[in-house]
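hey so i finally got around to running the thing on that chain from the lab meeting. sorry it took forever, my laptop kept dying and i had to restart like 3 times. anyway pasting the input first so we r on the same page abt which one it is
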Amino acid sequence: MPYHCFVCSVLALQLWRPPGLYAIDKWIEGNLLTNPQDSAVELRQVLVNQAFEAFRQGVQPAVLDAQLLTSNWGVKFEDENYYKAKIWYGTKDRNASVELVMYMAARLPHCTLREFLGGTHFLLQRYLEEVLLELISKERPGPKIRKNSPIFDVRPVETSELGIVPQAWWSERNVNL
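ok and heres what got predicted. didnt touch it at all, straight out
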């Protein structure tokens, strides 16, 4: 049996065993169910299909992704010359560390950090329209700012589910800005 088939088989066994089903269904109910018509079972099937899709061309692309995600790319954020950088971050994101997000925001010139209270790594699925509208806005950056100081987007947000995390929130968690 080729290695990628073995990996997919192990993954399938873990996802379809009763303890795995229970854990996945609980995670789905807590993180992904935004539409009352959806069911955890249907979303679990979507999740399994996505997991297998990652290995459709073998394990090498998945291994390459893992290497890219865990290695230093040699990029100096201070040297980037983009007109304006925007970062959207969910405060309950378990995949992207708050330290890395703050590190990038502090060093990217003209960077706006937008924080979604309670947002997870999958916040774009829920707020895609708002993010796209913000991307195509004609807004221009303000005056030149000092390097190594993050800029926080403090515009009021119309939706009550969203909010900007105050600096005190970061201070309480010992994150150095």
